[in-house]
Fold this sequence. Notes:
Elements: H1 11-29, H2 33-38, H3 61-66, E1 80-85, E2 95-99, H4 100-116, E3 124-127, H5 135-147, E4 150-152, H6 159-168, E5 173-175, H7 178-190, E6 202-206, H8 212-222, E7 225-232, E8 237-243, E9 250-252, E10 257-262, E11 276-282, E12 293-299, E13 301-302, E14 314-315, E15 320-321, E16 326-328, E17 331-333, H9 335-343, E18 348-359, E19 362-371, H10 380-398, E20 403-407, E21 422-424
Parallel strand pairs: 3-4, 3-5, 5-6, 6-7, 18-21, 19-20
Antiparallel strand pairs: 1-2, 7-8, 8-9, 9-14, 10-11, 11-12, 12-15, 13-14, 16-17, 18-19
Helix pairs in contact: 4-5, 7-8, 8-9, 9-10
The protein binds adenosine monophosphate and zinc ion.
Amino acid sequence: MYFDSVEAMDRAELEQLQVERLKKTIENAKKSPFYSERLADFNVNDIRTADDITKLPFTTKNDLRSQYPHGLLTKPLEDFVRMHASSGTTGTPTAIFYTQKDLDTWAELMARSMYACGCRKSDTLQNMSGYGLFTGGLGIHYGSERLGMITIPSGAGNTKRQIKLIRDHNVSVLHIIPSFALYFAQQVQEAGFKTEDMPWRIALIGAEPHTEEARAKIEEMMNIKAYNSYGLSEMNGPGVAFECIHQTGMHLWEDAYIAEIIDPKTGEHVAEGEIGELVMTTIRREGMPIIRYRTRDLTRFIPGQCECGRTHRRIDRITGRADDMMILKGVNIYPMQIEQCLMSMPEVGQNYLIELVREGVSDHMTVKVEIKEEFFVEDMRVLQGLQKKIAKTLCSEILLTPRVELCQHDSIPKTEGKAVRVIDTRDED
Ligand code: AMP
Ligand code: ZN
């Protein structure tokens, strides 16, 4: 019944496949300047079970940066047909190169992912993410075509045109970044349309951290089913892990990647079901294999079987990146804790922003939060009450009371692409 029978493969068989592919990957990786050195003394026969992967060294983002642009390539440049880059905002970028075969594998994984959450060839998909270096553009695009859907490369922005395209072409599947989806839902209503009259039924949302509460809000406001999609350019892009129709975590495609979850401090595997840093190895990529990549993304394996029958393990939604953690007055805080509180409050609108500033010797957090129009009243006392309520709710989660600034809806600037949730100026002069 599946797009691909590999998805329901017996676990023992799947692990055997992983071992074979891992060995091939190591041999292939040794053809690259970086791994020829890093793995010079590694004997591939030391890999007997999937767990033996722990004998290999990690690869970090800094390794990729130091090898920019070509240090991890296993073939001459003329054998490659595409390059993408990671969305890092500072320092040297990282570049990912693909052969035609790598692009085919990626499209297949993407198509498999979209099928898993209910997309079919009779659907029409509008890809509302930015094209260009970001892998959510072309990655989703070719996967969608591979599945046989009519694919509309609308790109990001221009909500009016997006709405027209959706209505004119009976678009049933949207690929949209979650922070933009919340904004878009509101724009559709403001343009005078009822979301229940729109032709869509499925939204593929991913590319940035978001909470279950934000998903619920998107689903409710848009009258749509929203499925979480995880990927990163170092592992091709989207299509690494995806929710099936049961929405109980994302199946991570273990015939293409070996995933591990480690304690970021010790590098050791955490106990089954515990949260840690996701570490990934490509086992189906020929041009630029990456071994034990430290993603910095925090998640856990969800124990047990999924009702859908797919045997590939599920990861939980990403609770944040190890780098996202803010330390304020000695307390560790993740932006998603704040989102979770805000999005569960009925008065809160679509957007928020966390600002960290240093005043004299002490640090402060201000949470700017858009309030729904109907709650933005003139009575100062009512507004102050709401402000207090939000501060109190946040305090119960993050254990300190932030300053709360209520903003009118649509007043916090939006970024095209991944949302910027935190502005930290504490270390600036
Ligand atoms: P990039 O390679 O620049 O597209 O960025 C990849 C990063 O985006 C990942 O390492 C995650 O931090 C984040 N990301 C992608 N998909 C998700 C998702 N579904 N949930 C949370 N974060 C995500
Ligand atoms: Zn499933």
